[in-house]
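Notebook B, p. 112. Complex prediction, attempt 2.
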Amino acid sequence: MHDSLIQLMYGFGVALQPDNLMWSVFGVLVGNLIGVLPGMGPLSTISMLLPIVSVIAPVPAILMLAGIFYGSQYGGAIGAILLNLPSHPPHAVTCLDGYPLTRQGKGGTALGITMMASFFAASVGIVVMIFLSPMLVQAANSFGPADICAIMLLGLLAGATMSRGSPLKGVAMTVLGLLCGTIGTDSMNGTARYTLGISELRDGVELGGLTMGLFGIADFLVSVNRTTVSPSGAHVRMRDMRPSRAELRQSFWPMLRGTGVGTLFGALPGTGPTITTFIAYALERKWSKTPGRFGKGALEGVAAPEAASHSKTQVDFIPTMSLGIPGDPVMALILGALIMKGIQPGPQLISDHPDIFWGLVASFWIGNVLLVILNVPLIGVWVRLLRVPYRFLYPSALFFIAVGVFSTRNNLFDVAIVAAFGVIGAVLLMLEFPLSPIVLGFVLGPMLEEKFRQATLLSRGDLSVFLTRPVAAGFVAASGLLVLAQVVAWLRGRRLAAAPA
Amino acid sequence: MNKWTKDHVGGALLLALGVAVAIAGAGYGLGSLRQMGSGFFPTVLGVLLALIGLALLASGRRAPQAAPPEPPAETAHLAGPLVQWRAWGCIVAGVLAFVVLGEHGGLVPASFAAVFVSAMGDRRNTWRSAAALAAGLTALGVVVFHYGLHLLLPLFTW
């Protein structure tokens, strides 16, 4: 424990270096902005900024990407509370009570409570991360390839089935992502796979190209000539944001409970942030003595889900940094960026690159403080930016995507990949397939295949290795339970549907 | 009205893709469990994808009435408001214009074409507003990417 504190001080030293601080602030600001803007999520923003990642040092790159991630959460809450824009699914539930509060003229209070809850929850998440990560790393040192495979299996399944929409479609998209990861030269024996005779594909599909196609171009294709956002201006002054003592007391326990929910779900791999916030909200409503107030401007309904989303965000970093197994698509992208910088994720990351890990931890706190301070004056600026018409926004974004993807490898072919995945993504979106499991599969695919081949090689082709090693067996069992639960839920839903309404 | 729901179309697509992937994968050499070939992992995934496709086809329910009109079977029939051919064509052409002109024209023509062509996909953009936007962004791009970040793409080549 003492050790962790020393390391943390070291981390602050790293995070406060001017260069690192600058990129961290940049990430937080960009994240905050896109959190308010509808249609732009952390996924598309991070992929759009991957070209910057390729030119700056690893530490500032990771700090920036992380800043985008949690910055967008604050932004999402602002959009939900002040403008009733559920632009980011995890914050959709915040609209339910946040916007009524704004209409009652208490938007400032709601924002104040949100920021307090967010900061508190993020701090708890960070502390959990500081103490849990080294423990996990120690355990991970005894993990064999079979264990890692089983953990990845659970993560992939959870990511596929616990997001929105049909679980079956989620699994299908995960498999599709895994397959996209196999495109290119097989690292074990040099066979070119699924290159369709195109020599550029021998190096595989570029992560930036895939994500920019799926989350950039595909989105333009689906929303062009459709989106009409005209938010009303909302004015919030610093003074309005200070909650009264009664309001503080009212939201204290919801904040704690929300943090608990977020921490718990963050530790489970693959559970999406949306489901976390919805559970926190539902729990609060059940707990409340006056559930009737929910939906009409209950502060508890704002504090709990926002706290949950922030603690989950922080705890999500634990498996990503200590095992190299991302819990959700954004984490997968951050991991992809690490790999791009030549850093091998896994249990050795914390000891090999303490500057990255501890710098990241410290920058969370710095970033969260910055967000609390900056949010207020910036809200007005973001609201004005929302008025840029979509017909100018998307061609500009498309241009930055094209230049950005080109610059990662100085390869125009990657830009063509963007167009291809744009069309694929748009068709999939129209068929109501979720796109984010594709990224999770794509990043984990090569790792999963390698570990799987190693595992069976070590066991001489005996698949029972996945059931005899305790860790592997545990995760395989959990995966089995998850599938079973989905099947049961499906059967029950079917019976309900069959019954006359 | 339509016998094909979104789930049916999706299922059929997955089934076809899965079968194709599995057949191609088998061609890369399956190997054995002890010493897996390059084709093992993708073939398993292809089979899995095909099975999910079958399951979707089998369970494909009708979309709720409130939902927007369902897309018919093949992309070729996806006419009407669902796919906007002009917008799609313009946006995809815009990206591809950047690729082609980047190779044979340089950063300036590629940027202008990418923005101009894609902007024409929005019905509310006139050729005038699209050209203005394209010119502005090209200028910005030249300053930021060429002079600022030293992008490895010459301003003009031919």
